[in-house]
Structure formats: structure tokens, C-alpha cells
Amino acid sequence: MQGIIPIVLKLLRQKKSGLGILASAGLLIVFLLSGGELNDFIKEKKEQHKPKNYTATVSLKPNSRYSCTVLRVYDGDTFKCRLEGGKEVKVRLIGVDVPESSKNIKAYRDAERAKADISEIIELGKKAKEFTKSLLKKGTEVVLETDVQPTDKYGRILAYVYLPDGRMLNLVLIEEGYATVYTIPPNVKYADKFKEAQKRAVKLKNGLWSEGMKSR
Questions:
Q1: How would you class 18 by CB atoms within 10 Å of its CB: exposed for 0-12, middle for 13-18, buried for 19 or more?
Q2: 92 given a catalytic annotation
Q3: How many Å apart are CA 11 and CA 13, to the nearest integer?
Q4: Fold of the domain built from segment(s) 65-211
Q5: Which of 84, 92, 175, 200 is catalytic?
Q6: pLDDT digit string (tens) for 152-174?
Q7: Pseudo-torsion of CA 63, 172, 192, 109, nearest 10°?
Q8: Distance between CA atoms of 101 and 129, rounded to whole angstroms?
Q9: How many Å apart are CA 57 and CA 55, to the nearest integer?
Q10: Which of these is catalytic: 47, 156, 167, 175?
Q11: Pick the catalytic residue: 84, 100, 120, 211?
Q12: Please, which residues bridge with residue 66 across strands?
């Protein structure tokens, strides 16, 4: 019965005469009586077009702090951790942006903006990722601080992340030259501090700035 699916769909898409409509209806009846293949087909298509959120929605309060245990690092500015209640969430650092560590649309966009080759952007992104991984080892206990908007449209937690030694990871990445300032209102609590840190990083040619990355 697998071969009948494209036939039925083709007939239904065409402008049909009365005979064509009758034939299509007959095929559908036979198809439905033959088993659950149609339902499986429809279910598969729905799954393919279902929005892909990064993580399940969680309810965190604005301007609040939460303890979280690091599980893995995805990129220089994104990682996964487990909240005290057991909920696993994906966290995006507020106010910073690092080069992509793999080829994707954003990597090509960054390369065009920086007037650089895509391979250079990827290499810089890998270095930024390794730096973040050195600070966020699996099992590390960190504190997430939310701003006005606790999550983004993908369901990720937006946070300022505090390391066990009290330093803010967002700020450290900028100071060491592994991230650029990327401010999106309404989460602007530390925007001025981030800008000053970036000026110092550029002046000292720290991290990525020593390798020619342009300030945005």
C-alpha cells in the first residue's frame, strides 16, 4: 500500500472531472480500510513541520537567580544545564555573541559582515567554544541571573551566568576577547559594563581581537 500514497495525493491535487473525483474517493476508501498507513503518513508529515524548539518552556521570573548544573557546552555562548528541580534547559548568554563553530547561515552572515573567509570565522568560533568549555566543565555549578525577559522565542533561558569563583561568564568572555557585545532590549542591565569591557579587550588585542576580528 505504500505506493498508493503518491497516487492519491497526485489525484487530489489535480483539477478533476466527476469521474476523477469518484476514482480518488474510491482509492481513499480502499486506503483507509487497508489499515493505519494514512494516519502514519499524516503523523510523519506533522512531525516534519513541527517547530523545533531548543528546550521545553520553563517559567523563570525576571531579575531572579537560579542554581544550575552544567551538562554540556553547545557553543561559545550557549550551553545546557539542569536546574535544581531536575529540569534540563538550554541557556543563551545575554549581551554577548561569539563566532559560530560550524557552518550555518549565521556563520556566513558573520563572515560577510567581518569581510572574512568562512573558514576563519569557524576557526575563531572553535577557539571561543573551547574557552567556554574550559570554564563550564560538566558538573560545574553555576548561577543563572535573568533580566527583564527570561526566555527567547526558541525557549532558551536568557541569563547572566556566574561561575563558582563569582565571576560573570558573559563579562569574562568579552574581557578575554572571545565575544563581542550583542545587546538586545529589554535585557540591558549590564550593557554599559559590557561595552567598556570590549573597549579594553580591543585595545589590549585580547583573544579574538589579536587575530583581526573586527568590532561590530
A1: exposed
A2: yes
A3: 5
A4: OB fold (Dihydrolipoamide Acetyltransferase, E2P) (2.40.50)
A5: 92
A6: 999 999 999 999 999 999 999 99
A7: -100
A8: 7
A9: 6
A10: 156
A11: 100
A12: 144
The SS3 assignment for 168 reads strand
In the chain, which residue ranges form alpha helices assigned H by DSSP?
Answer: 4-13, 18-33, 37-49, 105-114, 118-135, 169-175, 191-204
Domain ranges for the chain: 4-49, 65-211
Cell readout for 122 is 569557524
- Region of 205 (left: φ > 0; alpha: ψ -120 to 50; beta: rest) is left
pTM of the model: 0.70
pLDDT tens sequence across 52-103: 444 456 789 999 999 999 999 999 999 999 999 999 999 999 999 988 877 7
Instruction: Provide the pairing of β-strand 78-83 with 141-145.
Output: unpaired
Tell me how far the alpha carbon of residue 112 is from its chain's centroid.
21
Cell of 153: 522565542
Residues in the chain, total? 216
**Residue from 99, 55, 92 nearest 77 by CA:** 92
156 is catalytic: yes
Rounded Cα gap, residues 86 and 206, in angstroms: 37
From 201, 203, 160, select the one nearest 180 (Cα to Cα): 201
What is the CA angle 64-156-149, rounded to 5?
A: 45
200 in active site: no
